[in-house]
Structure formats: structure tokens, C-alpha cells
Amino acid sequence: MLVILLFVVVFFIFAYFELADHDSIEVEEDTFIRENAIRQLTEEEILLLQSYLEDENNFTAPYQKESSLISFDVTKIKGYIEKDVTEEIQYKYYYKMDNVQLFFPYNMDYAIMGFTDPDIDKTKNINTVEIVFTKSYGIVVKINSYDLIQAGLNLFVRKQKQRYDYWQTGKLKPICMSNLEKSNETLSQQITEASEKKPTFEILSRREKNQFENAIEDRSNSGKLMTFFFVLGVMSLLAVEHFQSIALVVFSIICFIFSLIASSKKRKLPTEYVNHIQAQIWRSGKDRSNLSIDTDFYVYYPSYWEIFLPDTSYIPIDMQVEVVTNQVLSCGKHLSISEEVKNYGAPKFFHHNVILAITGLILAILIFFFTKAGEKLDFTYQQLTSTATTWNIDDKENLKQSAIHSMDRVNLNLSSVSCDILNTQRIKPHHVQCNKIFVNLNPIDSNKLSDFPRLHRVEVFRQLIDDAKDKVLRLQNDENNISIQLTNSIQLYDENYKYSYGNEGFKAQLDYYNGILSGNSANLKITGIVTNVSYHNGKISKLTLLTDYRNDSDKNQLFSFFSLILINNFVFLFVILITLINTILIFRKKEVNQSRLEKIISHYRDKIF
């Protein structure tokens, strides 16, 4: 029992001293406020602070709502304001000056000087604030020259909205007031005075834009649909080269027609209005493309009008200004967009020309490199200008003796041919692939495989293979024979060529070389265009055959409707033509616009100066 009694006594003593200490702090705060107070809150300030004392939604963390003020005494303090960050991740912070936490109602913190720059000299950015205290922080009612009534009424923004509505409708409506503002005479009077203050410009009338003013607007569409159909048409024509379908040709023509339709389709301009105003104008700062007709309210004029406009007008000037864009359409007696269009026509627009020129250039580059368009054009030219002969040759000696020339077509059906053994690719048994063929005109006897003791078989095979290979190389490099270089690799069937391993592989390799030497090798059947001929002792030793373009047809067939070369040439030249036409149009239109501009400036000089 004695212990319990002792505990109660200690508790009450502790509570007494805590309350005494708290009362002491409160007394100190009250003393500080009373000694440093410069005035009492006004009725208007109390009204504007009421919402912050009643609604916690007006606060963001880490600030908490306080429901009452310690007193209505307003205290003035000076110092550097900084942020006291309480949480780095969500960037929560208090504003503080020395040890006093500050809360800024109505976004008054935008008027703080200095804290945005971490390297700023604090002594050069001293803020003066007037505050009233709650138990947790001081509420700012004035910072520097910006006070609570200015912030709470937000007259600058409300006046801007009133002016914007006036610009849009031509009617100056009073600024709306809340019930709180209506309940206070001082607040309502300030709002009314601001509301009744008219802008420095006057709207005399309002009308729709006329046809001449609309003519300076580029009504062409974005060009995406036009470009899509153009590219699709080109790709479809290139596909004809592989699929040989008349349907693709028709589809391509339809795509080009749709591209033209999409190009010619104009944007429908919305109905736009023009304000006829009277306003004094002034220009300031580096931006010389606008005129100020009221505080922070600008209209914009064509750059070539600059030399004819004063920096400041001391009397109101008649102006026609587009409502949405604030673009000046006429200014004073002489400067007028309508008159420019009437006398010198509308400017030329080349947005679509730029798109088509760039698209055409990209397509032309892709076609040139991926379809070998340059080679095909050169081939076409050679075919048109040369007196080409078609040769049907099935005898090696006839080939050797023939008077073949460049651009002649040859249909070859020869035996005893072989691939270049130094550049041969294995495909499958009895099949090799290569792009250089040798015709053996002088078969020779070769040593056949003989039976040797098993211990010496591998060494003998290797020696025989090396000898045979050397003989084949000498044969293939003999200019008395014929070599044929092909632009595309082909497959040859040679019954002596097969896959084998071990000793059987040596035997197969030797049989392959012996077959080449003896003239018992592959057959060649191919058609190509001769692009180069070399002679030795008056006879053919080397031929280069172009085999890329399915040259198994004569000249007439080569330029038929479904000819690969004809289609490729047409598409390539068509794309280049589109690119050139649009590039020329771009420069031509720019030249016309420049000439038009010079005439307009000369006309204004004559009238004004």
C-alpha cells in the first residue's frame, strides 16, 4: 500500500513539472508574439485564413491542419528562407526561417527569393515575412510586397480570365465573386474595382475570316495517306517482278490513283473569327514578332511587316486580329493580308512536295542497291544500242571458233565441263556449285588407280591425288581451253563427285580429278548475255555471262510486259521522276514566294514611305 501511495505522489509531481514547463513555453511564445507584434489581423485576412483552419484538404504533407491561431497578432521577421526536407524519396519538406517553420497559404511561396539556387549567398536574399502563429508553425500573411489579400483574391489570374473571355466573346463580363468575398465589403470592393477596369484595347466588332485571309492557310493534309499509297504502289510494282501477276499491276495503278486523290484532298478549315479592335501598341524585349496591346497580352504579325510598324503608338490603331491565334490580319491603313492576296495571290505551299521528294529519294536509294537498278539500266541500254546476235552452241570447238561479241546472247549445251576446283561448294552427292566453269577441249589420259600393298595405300593415294590435282589446275589455266565466268552460281551434276571417307574418299577424289582430265565430267546447259570476251591466238579463251535476268528469251521478249528488267527500270525511273518533279516544285514555289514577298514589301514602301 505504501508503494502504491509513493508511486501516485511521484506521478503527480512529474505531471506538475511537465505542465509547468509547457506553460512556461507558452508564456515565452506569448511574450515573443506580444513584444514583436506590429499589428492585428484584418477582418479580410481572417476570412481568407478561415478555410485553412477548417479544411485539412488545403494542406500537403508534412504540414498538418491547425484549427486555431494562438492570437491575431501579426509578427514581422526577416531572414533567409530554406527548405527543411523530412523525406527524400517523396520530397516532403517544411519552409523555415531560422528556427521558425512557415506555412504559405494560397501558393504564396512563389514570391520567396533565393532558395531555388543552392549556391546563392544567403545574405543577399533576405525575405521579410509577416506571420500569425499556430501551435505548430507560422502562417504567412505577407512576404516581401506580396500579401494575403492579393494571393487569396488572385486578381491577376481572374483578370486574365476576364480579358480572355472578353477577347473570345467581345463582351466584358464582371468577375464572379464567392459568397465569402461578397460578405466582406473591402474584398468585394477590390474585386469590383479590378473587374470594372477595362483592357487597354477595345473590340469594335467581330466577323468571320474572309476567303482572302483563309487563302494564306495551308489546307493540305498531313500527307501520311498519300505517302502510304505511293510506297504501297511502288512495292507492288516491284513484286510483279517475282509474281508476274497482272492483278499486282492493276493494284499498283489503283494505289497511285488513291495517292493522287489523298494528295489533292484539302483539310476543311473550321470557321474562324476576327476581332476588329483599336489598341495602342508597343514592342519590348528581343522578340520582335509580337505586339503588346495590354499587360501580358500579345498579338502576332508577319515578320516582313516589322519595318513598317512603330515601336510604340501614342494613339489607338485600327487592327484586324484572328481570335484563336492572335494573328494580325491588318494593321492601320495599309498593312493588310487580304489586300496582299488580292493583288499578289496566295503563297505557294510545298508540304506535300517535301514529303514526296524525301520518300522518293529513300525509295530510289533502296531500289538502286537492293535490285541492282544501275546494272539493269546499263544492260537495257546495251541491248537497245547493240546489234546483238543469238548463238546456239552445243559443240566445244564451235564455241572456241565463234565470233561472239559483247551483249550477244548464247545458249550453251556443252559436255566435259567442270567447276573451278579451287572454288567449289559441296551441295550433295554428285552435285557441286560454283560460278566459274572450265570447258576441257583437250582430254588427256590419266593414270588409273592401281592396287598397291595395303601398308602403302594411303601414301600412294595422296601422291596420285596431288598429281591429278596439279594436272587439273594446269588444264583449267590453259588458255587453249575455255573458261566461263557466271554472274550467278549454278549447280552442276557430276557422277564422279560424291561424298566418301577414308580410303574410299581418296579413291572418289581421284576418280573426280581423273574424270575432269579425261573429259568424262559434267554437262552444262545455260543461257546468258555475254558481257566480256577474251581471245587467245584468235580464238575464244574466256567468256563472262550475265545470268541474272532470266536471259532465256530474245530481245523482244526481254522487253515484254512482264519482263523483269522492264518492270524494274520503269519503277526506278518513275520514282526518280517523282523525286525530281517534287524537288523542282519545292524550289520553284520558294522562288515564287520570294518574288511575291519582294513585290509586297516594295508596295508597302511606296505607300508608307
Describe this structure in words.
- The strands form four sheets. Strands 1, 2, 3, 4, 5, 6, 7 and 8 form an eight-stranded mixed sheet that branches. Strands 9-10-13-14-15 form a five-stranded antiparallel sheet. A five-stranded mixed beta barrel has the order 17-19-20-22-21.
- Helix 12 (373-385) crosses helix 17 (564-608) and helix 14 packs parallel to helix 15 (502-518).
- By secondary structure, it is an alpha+beta fold.
- A hairpin with a 4-residue loop joins strand 6 (127-133) and strand 7.
- Helix content is 43%, strand content 23%.
- The chain contains 17 helices and 22 strands.
Q: Features of this protein?
A:
8-stranded mixed sheet, 609 residues, 5-stranded antiparallel sheet, alpha+beta
Gross morphology is elongated
Number of strands: 22
The helix fraction, in percent, is 40-55%
Radius of gyration: 47 Å
Tally of individual helices: 17
- Estimated structural class: alpha+beta
